[in-house]
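It would be a great kindness if you could assist me with a short task in structural biology. The matter concerns a single protein, recorded as an amino acid sequence and a row of backbone structure tokens. Kindly check, if you would, that the fold set down in the tokens agrees with what the sequence suggests. Thank you for your consideration; the sequence and its tokens are set out here:
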Amino acid sequence: MRLTFIPRTLLFILLLAAGVIKGYSQQATDKLAQALTDSLGYLQLSDAQKTQALGFNKTAAASLVQTAQKAKQDTTFKGKAVAKQVMGIMKQRNTALTGILNDDQKKLMQAHKIEQAAELQTKMMTAQLDLTDEQVPQVYQVNLKETQEMMGDAAKLKGAKRKLQKFKAAKALKSDSKDKDKELKKILTSDQYSKYEKSEQEMQAMMKEKMKEKKG
């Protein structure tokens, strides 16, 4: 996938932490942990699961509070660096959480991730491209469809063991992106689409550079 997303709830929590926390406190951590647990209401957790989830969220909340403090104190620690650390914290939380969910809850969690990713993409594009009220829901549907397809194909690529399987999955991912671009071209004005293409090209160039750094 070309973009990495931070759930809206997490962004809100991190901003809240950065705005109100002046020093580490157990109360602040507990408040964030409870907010993270409340955001899981859609999973309809059992009482036992809620207790376990709260424990995972307390661990994550402590790290989020520390991240927010660091962002306030260190002016060089911002943007992508903050996002990377936050996503790492939440990835660990989600891995632990998945371990206590039943199959139906896991499906709900995956669907929720897709919806949040599509919503965040749409909000970013609304700000970058100045989308009209009519364009917003149309762009959201395109983003939702592409996110569903790309997550599925990315999972296939990750699980592929044979070269042919990997090739097919990689090809499908490229096709997903092309399909999205075609659909967006029907919705956006020529000026908006030009801005969108430029943004995508910059993102791809940045990702290629990161890949080179990793190989080096």
